[in-house]
Amino acid sequence: MAQQKKLVEEITSRDEDFTQWYTDVVIKAGLIAYSNIKGFMVIKPAGYAIWEAIQKHLDARFKATGVENVCMPMMIPESLLNKEKDLVNGFAPEVAWVTEGGQEKLQERMCVRPTSETLFSDFYKDDVHSYRDLPKNYNQWCSVVRWEKETRPFLRSREFLWQEGHTVHASAQEAEARTQQMLNVYADFCAEDLAIPVIKGQKTDKEKFAGAQATYTIEALMHDGRALQSGTSHDFGDNFSKAYGIQFTDKDNTLKYAYQTSWGMSTRIIGAIIMVHGDNSGLVLPPKIAPVQVCVIPVQQRKEGVLEKAQELAAMLKDYRVKVDDSDKSPGYKFAEQEMRGIPLRVEIGPKDIEAGKCVIARRDTGEKTDCPIAELPERVGALLAQMQTDMYERARKHLEEHTYTAATTQEFEQTFAEKTGFVKAMWCGELACEEKIKENYSVTSRCIPFEQEQIAGTCVCCGKPAKKMVYWGKAY
Amino acid sequence: MAQQKKLVEEITSRDEDFTQWYTDVVIKAGLIAYSNIKGFMVIKPAGYAIWEAIQKHLDARFKATGVENVCMPMMIPESLLNKEKDLVNGFAPEVAWVTEGGQEKLQERMCVRPTSETLFSDFYKDDVHSYRDLPKNYNQWCSVVRWEKETRPFLRSREFLWQEGHTVHASAQEAEARTQQMLNVYADFCAEDLAIPVIKGQKTDKEKFAGAQATYTIEALMHDGRALQSGTSHDFGDNFSKAYGIQFTDKDNTLKYAYQTSWGMSTRIIGAIIMVHGDNSGLVLPPKIAPVQVCVIPVQQRKEGVLEKAQELAAMLKDYRVKVDDSDKSPGYKFAEQEMRGIPLRVEIGPKDIEAGKCVIARRDTGEKTDCPIAELPERVGALLAQMQTDMYERARKHLEEHTYTAATTQEFEQTFAEKTGFVKAMWCGELACEEKIKENYSVTSRCIPFEQEQIAGTCVCCGKPAKKMVYWGKAY
Question: Does B97 contact A98 at a Cβ distance shorter than 8 Å?
């Protein structure tokens, strides 16, 4: 058990220093390694397997709504990027420029895509001619580059992996419906697969995406009470379509501009999984997306029949993602490692268990250990995984609820943020000036105007003028 | 049928102009669109779905051999690239350089990865310490950039998608075994999933990968008799490990350099599928990797019950990848489109068929049409898909056999390449000078030194000196 303690003690306590705890988990759970290039990380097998699970679940949800995958070029010529003014202003300061290729200086420099609205628009301009060609619901899984100053693994990096969906429609209504549909896909995915409850809402004009008519967002609350924007969906109306010339002949035989949307979720969501579910023993993975759901650990594995029995148990669990840790490390070390890596269930099997015809199952989230007759193992594992998925969501929901406050007055707003970290629901007049003042005074930003509105007060929490909307405010990652 | 003819007539005949035929298929089957950046293509849904199918099959084969997926940075600092002399000389002339980021000139320029040996080596140097850490069998699916002068969709493009496996081992023997194992994975995948027979062998020193000790290759023969290098596997020995300092403490407690391999297959293989199986009606996809295996086409679909019956047939085929074309195009147009896109089977259903309790099944590869009682449809579809997969492989194997020639003398060699296009098996002394002379004189290159050697003659086909090896020669893409 000395080794087990050692491994666990190496993590900083979550409540002492959340930032350091996060870094410790990311490294010690084997999710990433820092590369020699600032802001570029190496995603290691344990980290990439989580991303593969996310891709699998999310991609299936996309395809169920008629989305098709494509692949766009990774570079954007400067002249193409410049066609949409807002987008240029939004992204130009943070792109990486390719200026030389094949030992020659390029006639026109190209940026590595920070996002691909321009490329999709340029493609749709030539691909869409008639209402019969619409809608097109395309998505791509790729990596993008944004030259961030401050970087943190998964949360903010110069290169990150994501998916970006880009759709084009014949009507504004259809584009708006698709924008909301994809936001719901993200919210359902978070709730059902990642056990993360989110707040759905609209971004203020200040926080919306460059060039968008409306940006919708899902906001999740981390264990430390800070917010993480976890997925966004944008309705562009015909902004891009006019800038890039995407026109089609409609049923009435007139030429019209098309309507577009885009929506994205990135490896950032792995940061959310860590910060919502993780604890002082490391990562805790929701069973549905855990690359390994059950780790069978033989105790006294050199004794005759123990390793064989462990393999036998694994074979009984073939309907689950199961692995036997038959390495020559001590059981204590293996326990600590399985906990660090967040594997939902541990099955322990030793000579005494074999004699008694049972094994021990330990839940990663609660630490609860129960004896289980070997014959009942598959059934119990199935039930425990389902229960753990539900319980993890419920705990996260309760945490969100307990860390969501309301403030009717400026004083309440100030006091809440002075004493607590979490979401504060408060009324807003809709003016940019108030939003900026709140950010300056309390270092919090508007997270979203939630779809589920409440009437907390009649006046703006900042200026006291009549309020238009209730807003979620918080400190964000 | 006018529309059908029109669509088909738009393709150039495969035997008249193979190059133009290829381009026509790539565009008209909806696989790609040209982007506005030279050498960068847009892979459209029909093309990307093929790549997804390839990824799925190949990734499962990798994982069955213990490979784990990771993600490395997309950029390489110049100083890191420069550490391995051969690699620099091989790739430096064709990389794209990022010189500016976030509005500032970078202190050191970085290239967009043309391949990732340097990045993996730099990572392994810090990640591998003991023999207990070995082997590491990592792979990544990503895109790479090589600044090619001449570009063609899939076959040679400035950006392409691929997988690159990079493994590190404790012994030279183990690295060599992994190199050959992965070549066999590629060969089996081509034969069993893509219905493409390949020649397995070793590249000559002239043709091997920059920095490799040995490069193994699978070579496929296209319909026009030209060769396509379809996958390669490299044994680096300890070359990279010495350049990048990958050392580990072995069981005997001494510090040793590790041994490495790398192996890759790219979207180029989609070019092989097109050029091995395609015909004058367009693409022909092997059933195992066809994104859609069966297209149900209703005939006279406005008649009562026809569309419903088509949907019913599709429901009966739920074990296969099936789609109903219920668009308002004419049946003839739909037939031509299904053929152009290479969907293996077409099921036709019209009022008369319904009355007779049957439907018609058409095979894409042979054009053969047979009546099928509706109750027997799933069984027949399963049998036909399996048969088509086998037949496609057999036709390709026969074509390869019939276009593989032997030449014992210089005169035979010259005459064969003057009259035929295909592989020519001939003896070689092993000297670079002869290899270069053959390239100069006949515009053919050594494709590989096949594992299955034959003794065609005793002397080199070029210089007449004693021969060391039999080599496959050919014109390559």
Answer: yes
Indicate the residue type of A365: D
Tens of pLDDT, residue by residue over B202-213, are: 999 999 998 899
Taking alpha carbons only, the member of B280, B276, B273 closest to residue B8 is B280
DSSP at B279: B
Q: Rounded to whole angstroms, how far apart are CA atoms B417 and B374?
A: 52
| Chain B nearest CA to A426, separation (Å) | 36
Q: Chain B residue closest to A52 (CA)? A: B69
Query: Looking at CA atoms only, how far is residue B97 from chain A in angstroms?
Result: 5
What is the distance in angstroms between the Cα of B267 and the nearest Cα belonging to chain A?
12
pLDDT at A3 over 50: no
Tokens 């462990």 sit on residue: A310
Pairwise CA distance, residues B473 & B462, whole Å: 12
- The burial of A71, by beta-carbon neighbours within 10 Å (0-12 exposed, 13-18 middle, 19 or more buried), is given as buried
DSSP helix/strand/coil, B465: coil
Residues of B in contact with A100 (CB under 8 A): 96-97, 99, 109
- Entry pTM: 0.96
On the question of a cis peptide bond just before residue B344, with omega within 30 degrees of 0, the verdict is: no
Residue B142: its chain A contacts at CB < 8 A? Answer: 143
Closest CA of chain B from A356, distance in Å: 35
pLDDT in tens, B104-135: 999 999 999 999 999 999 999 999 999 999 99
Contact call for A96 and B101, based on CB within 8 A: yes
- Cβ contact, residue pair A73, B138, below 8 Å: no
Candidates B42, B69, B138, partner chain A, best to mutate (most A CBs within 10 A): B42
Say how many residues make up chain B. 477
Between CA A390 and CA A395, with CA A394 as vertex, the angle to 5 degrees is 120
Q: What is the DSSP annotation of B74-86?
A: SEEEHHHHTTSHH
Digit-coded pLDDT (tens) for B147-199:
998 999 999 999 999 999 999 999 999 999 999 999 999 999 999 999 999 99
A-chain CB neighbours of B93 within 8 Å are 102-103
Interface predicted TM-score (ipTM) = 0.96
Burial of B87 (0-12, 13-18, 19+ CB in 10 A): buried
* pLDDT greater than 50 at residue A362: yes
Residue A350: which of A380, A293, A309, A295 has the closest Cα? A309
Residue in chain A closest to B59 (alpha carbons) equals: A52
The reply to whether residue A73 touches residue B142, judged by beta carbons under 8 angstroms, is no
Task: List the single residue in A with minimal CA-CA distance to B146.
Answer: A102
CA–CA gap between residue B110 and residue B75 (Å, rounded): 6
Mutate to test the interface with A, among B27, B28, B31, B35 (most CBs of A within 10 A): B35
Q: Nearest residue of A to residue B98 by CA position?
A: A98
Round to whole Å and give the CA distance between A65 and A182: 9
E strands present in A176-281 = 199-202, 214-221, 227-237, 247-249, 255-257, 259-266
Q: In whole angstroms, give the CA distance from residue A242 to residue A240.
A: 5
| Residues sharing a CB contact under 8 Å with residue A374, sequence separation 6 or more, in sequence order | A313, A316, A357, A358, A359
